[in-house]
């Protein structure tokens, strides 16, 4: 069996970047830049403007009484100049009038009946945003290696960009297999269960930055599985199947990947999720995840999520990793690295973690209530109370 690191290295090694495409900046939330170095097409701000509501003046004439000769508002195409002994009423963001070098906030002034204004004190701060004080035209700005946030979109817009070049979302085919599966909400017959993997894996793909292509559920039939994977390889960038990767008589996914392409490996030292098939179908990477829904979600987190991010040119798993102290013992297989489902909470002394519930690979209650995966390494038969472990945050910390 491979270690987590060995398996991840092989998986990421097969990643190929998706193509770049130009997209309007308003539609780029969560997208990934193809080139993180952006050249500013203009000064930011493009002109000197007021940082306050007040009066544009010559700083050397404060304190004192000045004649108000006009008004400047944001968006004004022209504003009156400020001469000796004059002031212009100005709003935040309005262009600074010629002749002025400071703005006196309105709270530091008194309007007089004759239309003049009294400036109560000398200007302690100019309250002027000079042209290019944030970014100069032609300057190269490097954005983080991460999906675009509201803040980064605001920055791109300020740099004068109407559209940006981003990576295409990877298309990820999702195939759930098993004679026992029926659609969510459908009546259950003898021996049947609801298919939890399709919806949860599709949601995981979206969260990771991909586009899910959901295939019809497949019975444990080799011909059907072969046909669906073959079709998916022509439509998707990545194939993800769940179920059929162990050693049972009705486990056909691993053999289907081998028939249609090649198998690289199929077992890893991880709990849950030891049986995991990785290979190619045609030219497409293919991963066969365990059928148990907890195992499917955990192995997706460990291996599929980083692969999708690699296809976007992003590093790592994109998750926050914290050190957390374990509150209670959690047993595990000593030969495998365990990713146990925990509830993480912050305290004055740091973060602590408690079991989210049953740790079995088919026990979804704990998975649904967990906000982190606590990593307990190989060689330990159980998580040690009071010991500190790495926690991978997968939900909100209360």
Explain what the structure shows:
The structure is a single chain. This protein has 398 residues and is α/β, with parallel strands linked by helices. It contains seven helices and 28 strands. The protein folds into four domains: 4-16 and 169-311, MoaB/Mog-like domain (Molybdenum Cofactor Biosythetic Enzyme, Chain A, 3-Layer(aba) Sandwich); 20-44 and 133-167, Molybdopterin biosynthesis moea protein, domain 2; 49-129, Molybdopterin biosynthesis moeA protein, domain 3; 321-393, Beta-clip. 20% of the residues lie in helices and 32% in strands. The chain has a six-stranded mixed sheet with strand order 7-4-6-5-9-8, with no helix packed on it. Strands 16-13-17-21-20-18 form a six-stranded mixed sheet, with helices on both faces. A five-stranded mixed β-barrel has the order 22-25-24-26-28. β24 and β25 form a beta hairpin. α3 runs parallel beside α6 (293-311) and α4 packs across α5. It is elongated, with a radius of gyration of 30 Å.
